[in-house]
Amino acid sequence: MVPDTVNTEILARIDAWWRAANYLSIGQIYLLDNPLLREPLTKEHIKPRLLGHWGTTPGLNFVYAHLNRVITERSQSTLYIAGPGHGGPGMVANAWLDGTYSEIYSPITRDEKGMKRLFRQFSFPGGIPSHVAPETPGSIHEGGELGYALSHAYGAAFDNPDLLVAAVVGDGEAETGPLATSWHSNKFLDPLQDGVVLPILHLNGYKIANPTVLARIPEEELLDLMRGYGHHPYLVSGGFDGEDPLLVHERMASTLDTVLDEIADIRRTAEAQRDAGEDVTRPRWPMIILRTPKGWTCPAEIDGLPVENTWRAHQVPLANARDTEEHTRILEDWLQSYRPDELFDGDGRLLDDIASLAPSSELRMSATPHANGGVLRRDLELPNFRDYAVDVPSPGATTAEATTVLGIWLADVIRDNPDNFRIFGPDETASNRLAPSVYEHTGKQWSAEILPIDQNLVRAGRVMEVLSEHQCQGWLEGYLLTGRHGLFNCYEAFIHIVDSMVNQHAKWLKTAGDIPWRRSIPSLNYLLSSHVWRQDHNGFSHQDPGFIDHVVNKKADVVRVYLPPDANTLLSTYDHVLRSVDYVNVVVAGKQPQANWLSMDEAIAHCSRGLGIWDWAGTEKPGTEPDVVLACAGDVPTLETLAAASVLRKNLPDLKVRVINVVDLMRLQAESEHPHGLSDREFDALFTVDKPVVFAYHGYPWLIHRLSYKRNGHENIHVRGYKEEGTTTTPFDMVMLNDLDRYRLVIDVIDRVPGLGTRAAGLRQRMQDARIVARQYTRDHGEDIPEVATWQWSAEGSAGVSQEDAQERVEETGS
Amino acid sequence: MVPDTVNTEILARIDAWWRAANYLSIGQIYLLDNPLLREPLTKEHIKPRLLGHWGTTPGLNFVYAHLNRVITERSQSTLYIAGPGHGGPGMVANAWLDGTYSEIYSPITRDEKGMKRLFRQFSFPGGIPSHVAPETPGSIHEGGELGYALSHAYGAAFDNPDLLVAAVVGDGEAETGPLATSWHSNKFLDPLQDGVVLPILHLNGYKIANPTVLARIPEEELLDLMRGYGHHPYLVSGGFDGEDPLLVHERMASTLDTVLDEIADIRRTAEAQRDAGEDVTRPRWPMIILRTPKGWTCPAEIDGLPVENTWRAHQVPLANARDTEEHTRILEDWLQSYRPDELFDGDGRLLDDIASLAPSSELRMSATPHANGGVLRRDLELPNFRDYAVDVPSPGATTAEATTVLGIWLADVIRDNPDNFRIFGPDETASNRLAPSVYEHTGKQWSAEILPIDQNLVRAGRVMEVLSEHQCQGWLEGYLLTGRHGLFNCYEAFIHIVDSMVNQHAKWLKTAGDIPWRRSIPSLNYLLSSHVWRQDHNGFSHQDPGFIDHVVNKKADVVRVYLPPDANTLLSTYDHVLRSVDYVNVVVAGKQPQANWLSMDEAIAHCSRGLGIWDWAGTEKPGTEPDVVLACAGDVPTLETLAAASVLRKNLPDLKVRVINVVDLMRLQAESEHPHGLSDREFDALFTVDKPVVFAYHGYPWLIHRLSYKRNGHENIHVRGYKEEGTTTTPFDMVMLNDLDRYRLVIDVIDRVPGLGTRAAGLRQRMQDARIVARQYTRDHGEDIPEVATWQWSAEGSAGVSQEDAQERVEETGS
C-alpha cells in the first residue's frame, strides 16, 4: 500500500502545495488587495500595518504538505499541533487550500474574491488573530505562550488509539522548561490504548533576536539528547545555500515513510506482546529533527542585510514593504517566486492536481473532529454521588477526610468511564488522599520500568502522575480539548506553577465560546488540597491560597470557584463540575479528618444555592434581624466560625448571631459581574445592609472585598483570612498566626456589635487569654491545646477553653 | 597536593561524619529529649507530631561529607545547593557539626544540651521549618517548590570565578520543567569569568508515592541524556542490598577527585585559549549521577513492609514511633545503628578527629559568605540618570520610547559595573528595546557555537538571554541571593510563567528580613514591557496585566509596583529600584514611541511623591475643589486620560477637572496596609471625599478598588482598565474594546458629574459617535483613525475628533 519510493510527480505536487501555502501565508501578512498579482503590485495593495510571523511558517507549511501525502496513503487520522503557533498564517493557508476554511467561513470562498478576504482579515481589526487560535480550523493549540506543544499532543493522543498527533516543536519553544520535560511524556504512553505522538523538532536556528541553543550544539550532542529522551531520532536537513527544495522534499518524504513504518512496527510488536500475555515494554518511538532555514524561501538579503536563515526573518522580513518602490518590488518578486500562475487557475482556485494532495473529509488535518473536541464529547456516566454520602446524623457528629470520600466516588467514575476520563496529579494523588481508593479499578499509567515492589503502576491506566505541574496541566488540556474529561489534583500552593497556562486556557475558552462551529468541551477541573491551612510537614513554601485570586481575573463566563466545607458538599460540588462544560472550576478541599456538617440532602440544597444560612449554628430569632453575621468560606474557616458561634451562643446567649456558609464564591459578586452573582436583594437579605459581618475566608482577605465591594452592606464586612504568615507549625497555630482563629473571631464580633456590655468585655478578655494560652501550650508541647484539638460542635455551645482554665494557664505562663 | 587515592583513615572519617549527620537528622525528626540515648528510649522522648523528610537526607549528608574533604584539600570555596530542600534536617545537622550553627544560634551549643535544643526546635512550633530555609546557614535555596536548583546554582556561579557550586538535583525535581531545561545553563557559563557548577543528580529512585522517571530508564539512556545536555557524566552507584557504605565512600571520593581534576583541566584549557588569543570553546563539564537507596540506612522493613529504598522512606518512615513499644525499639535501634558513642564524646561534642573533616572558617559550606549574599553586596555605581533625560520643553511636546531611553542609561550601568550587574530576558531584550543600546559595552553571554552572522554574542557578557522565563528568574535569583544586582525584562503577559517562583522569592525575603544574621540583598527588579495595550503583533495570548495582582498578595514589606507614564519617570524609577534592597519591584513601561509629559526635574519630584496632581492638565481654579478627578496609572491610560481632559477643557470649559497621575501604586493603599500608603488626610486632599473619580488604570480594574477600599471617598471611584478583551488589533481599538478610551472616559465624567446641562449632553452624544466612527475607520483601514493616531496634547484642549467629522462619518457609515 505504501510506495517504496515517493515518485517525482508526487514530490512535485507536494512542492506545489508548499509553494501555494507559502504564497498564501505571505499574502495574509502583506496584502490588502491584488491577491493574485493580476496587476503590478503597488503600495495601495499593501496593508498599512504589517503584523504576523513569517519565520516559522514555511517550515509549518512544509510539514503540513508532507503529512497530507501520508495521511491519504495510509488513511491515518492525524492531528497537527503547531508548537510555533505564531505561524498562524500557515495553518490558515493550509485550511483554505484543503477547503475546510471555506466550509466553515463561507465568505472566504475558494477563489480570488475569497483569497482577497482571506488576506485582508489576517491580523486586521475585526478579522482573525495572527496566531493559531480557536478561530483556526484544525487547532487545539494557541502558540502564543510557548512550551506546551508536546504535552498538548500527548493529552490528545491518550485514549485515541487510532490517532497520530504530529507535533511540530519550535527550537525556540524547546528552550522552555515545560517543553524540555515534556519529551519524557513517552514514558506515559501506552502503544495499545493510546495514539501516537510524532515529535518534529523544527530546528530553524533562530528566535526573535538570538540563535537557538539546540541549533548551536554539535549534531551528535543533539542526537544524544533525543536518544536520552527515549526517542529514535531521524534527521532531515536541507534548504540551505539555495539547495533545490525538491531534494529536501525527497528526504522528508522518505524519512516520513520510514518513521511511519517504524511506528506501525512498534504497534504490531506491542500487540504481539499483549497477545502473548507479555509485558508491553516501552518502545523507542521515532522522532524527526527537521533542520531548515528560518524564513526559508524569503529574500536572502534585504537592504544589504541577510534575512533568510537569520533572526531577521522572524516576524515581517520586509517591514517597510510599503515605503519605497524598491521594497514593493522585492515583495512582488518574492511573491512571484512561488509562481502563483502555476498554482491557481484564472478564478483563483487551487489547481485540481495540487488539491488532490489533500486527504478527504475528516482526514484533512484542518477538519479533524479531534481539533473540535466538543464534537466527540460524550457525557460522563456518573455514579449517583448520593450513594457515597457520609452519615451526618447531626452537624459535627461524624468526621471524614473529604478527599478520601471523594476518592471512593471517583474510583467508580473511573470504573464507569473506562476510556474518556483521567485523573492528573504531580505525585500528589496519594498525598491528597484520593488514593488508594482511585486505584480500585485502575492504576497509574507508566511505560518505564516496573519493579515488583511497585504499587498501582500499570501500562494502561486512568491516573497520570508525574512531578511536573506543567505536564499535568498540558496533558489534561490536550485531553479536554479533544473532548474527554478529567481533573487535576494538586497541592494548593503549587498550582501557581501553571498560572500562565490556565490563563491561556481560559482565554481559549472565552474565544471559543464566541465561535459558532466550536462545540463545548468538558471543563478544566481542579481539586486543590493539602491547602494553606494544613501544611504541617512543609511550612511556608507550601502555604499560598492565591490561585483563586489569579483565576477570578479571567472572564466571569469562564471561571467558577468552590469551597465545599465538608465531605458531602465536596461530593455534590464535584458531581456538578464533572457535568459542566467550558469552565475553569477551582475546587478547594481539605484532606484531613474534619467534622461533617451537612447530611447529603442538606449538602445538595446548600450547594445548589451556593451559600446559605446555617440556622442550626446561629442564634437568630425568627422574624428579627440578627445582630451580627458570621460568614465563612472554606473548611478551616468554617470550623473556626462554628467554634466562634459556639462560644458566643454559650457566653452571650442574647446576641443574635447568623451563620452563613459560602460554597460558591462567585455568588458574592454582583449579578452584573458574574452569572452566579446574587441579586442585591438576595445579598441584602442574607448579609443585611447594616449589621456587622465577620467573614472568615480561606484565602487572602481582600478577595472578599473585591467580590462584594458593590454590595450595600459591604462597608460592614470585616474579613479574616490568610495574611501571608506561615511556617511549619500546628493547625491551630496557623490560624492564630493569621488572626483567623475562633477566639479572634469572637473578639471581632465583640468589637463590632455595639452595646454588648460588661459580660462581652469579660469574654473579650478571656478570648485574648485563650490565645495566649493556646500559643504557649503549642510552644511547650508541639501540638495543639486539647481544648481545640478535641473540640466538637455542640448545640449548647462551648468555648473550646473554659474560663477557669484560661485564667489559670495565663497565670502559669506569666504572659 | 591532591592525593592519588583517598586513604582508609580519611574514608573512615567521612563515614563517621556521615553517620553523625544522619544521626542528628533523625534526632531532629523524632526526638524531644534523650538526644544521645543515655537512657532507654521511651515515648516521652519522642515528639508528638513527627514532621520532616528523611528520604533524601542521607544522600544530602553523603555529598556534604565528601565535599568537606575536597574543599579542605583544595581550599576550594564551595556553595552547596540542596535541590531536595525538604531534606532540611540534613543541612542543619551538617551546620551544627561544623560549628556554624552554634556560632549563629548561640543557644544551640555544640554539646548535649545544644543537641537537645537542636532536635526539639526542628519542625516544632516556634522553632525552625522542616525545609532548608532562610534560617538554614549556608543556604540560598528553599527546596519546597522544586525545580530551581540548577538555575540558582548557575546564578550563584556567574561572576564568581573562584566558586564551585555543588548542586544536588533530586530525581523527583528532575521531572519538573524548569529543572529539565536548566541543564542547558552550561551553554551560558564562561569558564574564565564565572565559577563552576557541579550538578549531582541524586537518583534515589522514588518520589512521594511513585518511582522517578530517570531512575526507571536504562542507564545508557540516562547517560545519553546527560551527554545530550552537554555534560560528561560520571556514575556512582551503591548502598543497595546492604552494601558496606565504605565501598560507596571509596567510589565517591575517587570520582570526586577525578571530576575536580577534570574541572581544573577545563579551566586551564580555557586560560590557555584565552592567552593564545583563541576562542574559548564550550567545555564538556563533568557531572555526577549518584544512585543510592532512598532513605539509605533506615530500617529495611517496618511492619513487614519494605521501607529503605522505597517511597515509604520519603517523609517519616516510622510514623508511629510513639505508639507502640515495638516501634519505639525500632527507632532506638535505628539511631543506635550509627553508633553515636563513637561519634560524640561524653558532653555530646563531635569527636575532634571527625570534626577535623570540616574545612575552616568561611570554607565551611554552612559559613560561606556567598550564601549570605548581603555580606558581599557592593552598591552599584549608577551613572547620574539625569544626564540621560529626554528634553521635554512642555508636556507632550516631544516623544520617546521609554525603554529605549532606559536602555541607554543601562548601557552605562553595565559599563560602570562590569562584574556585579546583569540583565536577564527571554529573548526579549531587543524586542523590549533595551537593545541595541545595552550592547554598547557588552554582549549576550553564549558558550555554544557562534557564527559570523551573529550579533552581540560574546563568551562573557552582561546580558543573559534564553527562551525560558524560569531560567531567567532562577539565574537572577541565584545572582541576587549571592549579593549581586540585576533586572529581568519580560513581556508583561508571560511573567506569569514565574508567578510561583516570585511567590517563593518573596517568602524568602519576608523570612530573611526577620533573621538577624541575614544581610540585605539587592531587590528583584522587573521591567515589564510589550505590555497588554501594545501587543499589536500577537494578540490575546499576549495580553495580560495580572502579574501586578499576583505580586500584591505578598507581604507589603516586600512588594513595590511602579507604572511610570513616560521616559523620564521610568529613568527616575529605575534608578530608585536599582538602589533598593530586599524588595520585589515591578515596573511596567511601554516600548512604543509616546509623548513625554514631564521634564526630568518634574519627573523626579513626581516619582518621589509617587503620585500627584498634574496642574497643567487640569482645569481647577485655585482655592476651590474640583468637580471631578481624572486619575490614571500606566502610560496608555495616562495618554487616554490627558486626551479626555483635553476634550473636557475645550468643550466644558467651566468644569473643574483635576488630573492625578499615579506612579507608585502602593501609595493608594492605607498607611496601615503598606509602608508607602498615603495617610487618609493626604488621600482625601488629592482625591476628595465626595467628588467622582474616574480612574484609568493599566491593569484589571478591581485592583484599584482593592487598594483604595478603605478610603473615605472610595465609593466615588469609578475604574476603567483591562477587562480581558483582546485580539490582534490597533492600539486605539484595544482601549476601546476595554472601555478605557478617551471618549469613554469623557462619557464617564458626564455621567457622574451632576448638573452639567445640555452642552454636556451634546458632548456625550458626540463622544459616542466618535467611538463608532473610530471603530469603523479601523475596520475599514486597518489602522487607527488619524485624529487619534496623530493626536497631541494642547494646552487649549482638543477633541481628537471634530464634531462635524464625527457626524459626517456616522452618516457615511450608516451606524
TrEMBL record, chains A, B:
Kindly give the NCBIfam families that the UniProt entry links to this protein: PRK05261.1-2, PRK05261.1-4, PRK05261.1-6
Q: Which GO terms describe its molecular function?
A: aldehyde-lyase activity; magnesium ion binding
Gene3D superfamilies assigned: 3.40.50.920, 3.40.50.970
Positions with biased composition (Basic and acidic residues): 806-815
Q: Is Cell inner membrane one of the keywords UniProt gives this record?
A: no
- List the cofactors: thiamine diphosphate
Q: What class of enzyme is it?
A: lyase
The taxonomic lineage of its organism, from the top, reads: Bacteria, Bacillati, Actinomycetota, Actinomycetes, Micrococcales
Q: Which organism is it from?
A: Mycetocola zhadangensis
Which InterPro entries does this UniProt record tie to the protein?
Phosphoketolase, THDP-binding, Transketo_C/PFOR_II, Xul5P/Fru6P_PKetolase, Xul5P/Fru6P_PKetolase_C, Xul5P/Fru6P_PKetolase_CS, Xul5P/Fru6P_PKetolase_N, Xul5P/Fru6P_PKetolase_ThDP_BS
Report the EC number(s), separated by commas if there are several: 4.1.2.-
Superkingdom classification of source: Bacteria
Supply the CDD domains for this chain.
Answer: TPP_PK (cd02011)
Ranges for the region named Disordered are: 795-815
Fetch the Pfam families from UniProt. Answer: XFP (PF03894), XFP_C (PF09363), XFP_N (PF09364)
Gene Ontology biological-process annotations: carbohydrate metabolic process
Domain Xylulose 5-phosphate/Fructose 6-phosphate phosphoketolase C-terminal: residue ranges: 591-793
Keywords on record: Lyase, Thiamine pyrophosphate
Which family does the record assign?
A: Belongs to the XFP family.
Question: So where does this one cross the membrane?
Answer: none
State what protein this is by name. Probable phosphoketolase
UniProt domain Xylulose 5-phosphate/Fructose 6-phosphate phosphoketolase N-terminal: residue ranges: 7-375
